[in-house]
Specification:
alpha+beta, 4-stranded antiparallel sheet, 2 helices, 36% strand, elongated
């Protein structure tokens, strides 16, 4: 039994190295050209849990953008957008559930993650965008 547990731990450690360890993901920033057409009016943040595909940060960025935009639309009115998004990924204990299919010789390319996202709320000036 101890040998099985030891092998299981080694397998978990090896498989964890296959997962992208990028803890932070950064969204598009405000460009110099946009500075003339927008005004930063605040910031929003959110925390949610989701499944993420390994090495597909663009999907994670889209989900975070829409979660932040929903919050911003409750707080602000007008033509708003979210910029300068920063996402911090933290592994969830539910990720261990994805190791079960490996015992049945199937591949899983996802994991659970706790996501903390924050971004700046910008308002487009009249006649812009």
């Amino acid at each position: 039994m101890k040998k099985f547990i030891g092998i299981f731990i080694v397998i978990l450690l090896l498989l964890n190295s296959c997962v992208s360890n990028d803890r932070f993901v950064y969204g598009p920033t405000i460009t110099a050209n946009e500075l003339e057409t927008i005004e930063i009016i605040g910031s929003v943040e959110t925390l949610f849990e989701t499944t993420i595909s390994w090495n597909k940060n663009n999907i994670l960025l889209e989900r975070s953008y829409y979660e932040l935009l929903k919050i911003a639309q409750r707080k602000y009115t007008g033509k708003i957008d979210i910029k300068n998004i920063v996402i911090e990924k933290q592994h969830s204990s539910k990720s261990l559930l994805f190791f079960i299919p490996m015992f049945f010789n199937t591949s899983v390319e996802m994991s659970y993650a706790n996501i903390y996202a924050r971004g700046e709320v910008v308002m487009y000036k009249t006649g812009a965008h």
